[in-house]
Amino acid sequence: MAITRTSSGHYDMQSVITNGTPRFQSVTPVELLKKSKSQSEDWDFDVYQDYMLSPKGSKTPVLGVFKTESDQYLGDYQTNCLITNREVDEAVVNTIDKLGLEYHRSSRVFDHGAKTILNYDILSGMKNDSEEFNPVFSIKNSYNGTWSVTGSFAIKRLICLNGMEVSTSQASDKRKHSRSLLGNDDRMDLSFLAETFKIGLDNAQSDLRNFDKMKEIKIGNDDAFNILGNVVRCSRKAVSTTTAARIACNWMEPSKDEKPLGDTMYRLFNAGTRLFRDWENIKADASLKARRKFCDILNLASNPTDKNPYSQGALDELKAKPNSEFALVL
Question: Is the domain of 272 the same as that of 304?
């Protein structure tokens, strides 16, 4: 059923609620996976906003967001300063071009175009020991109010069968869709994306050195299970017990490219990122949030510095046996 308009030309709020794209609040796991699954790669489409109306026909302050070519309802914002995927892409591509770098862009589109993730693989050929890496800049944007415009820098381990990506917390920033981003020329000022990209690129080499330290930390099965239980606790369950258990399964059954890493923190790190990569297309929100928490916690514990007092003793804390609420059983 199509979303109807009122006689004044605006979309009927009741029609949207009844016939439009609903916000699932209580669904089964299978339904959730179907809802979150990537719908297409079509991210570069025109959108427009129009005021929603109440069931009585009065104008509301809520602006609906619609695809221009089909009038398909995508979501709503209470501001008329919507940042489009095209504007975000232009800001990133201009930054990459100015730095003289080559890239490959890929996309994942969710909820029929309401949410988009754009990944820019930077073809730089970074190396560490015998491993090769590509920096990756990721952009999240939404037309339904669920995501701010977010830019984050990561590193992809190319030798890894699952394409391990490591989040770099120092290179992540986000902005809400807001009039505060309008420049003097009435164009969106997305310069924060360029700054985030440059910071991430500068920090990429130091992140590779962090991997060397992870490779030196030997851990056994008990250590791995204790670490995962404490990751659940430290992440405030952003990494759930179920997620930790699945990472533990990956640890016990390493992939072909993980076996040479030995019983080290680095292999546990890879076991986790393998799971998050597998989940990216079906659980985008949960995967990104959990991956960043997991990567940041293990990075912090493996690379203590005087500048960060929280890193001191973090490894011993992770290896300690967690209480029964968070403990994983072999």
Answer: yes
